[in-house]
Amino acid sequence: SVVDESAPSTALAPEIARAERVLEKLSQCLPPQCPLGIEVVKRPLVGFRTRFGSTGAAGPQAVFVNQNTTFTDALSKVIFDRNKLASIAGVPLLQNCEHILVDEGGRD
Description:
alpha/beta; about 20% strand; disordered C terminus
């Protein structure tokens, strides 16, 4: 059967649900002018530099979440300081996030 590449993997559904709960909690900690969204991507985390700019750049930044992230731990350890970069299970967490990206593992 043909796989719809535009649709999220069903195996990711629980992770997306967790990410949506994280979004809700993060939105309570961030200024109202900082919109939050969720996007499923297929490329590895290294792609964030071209998509969102480097960690020191102004403009859109992101929280990256993958299937190895413990979301409750991530929430408790995130430092809401735009000048700091926290790492949860090796996943970079950038402040003033506009998106949480659920990384499917970088497969093409």
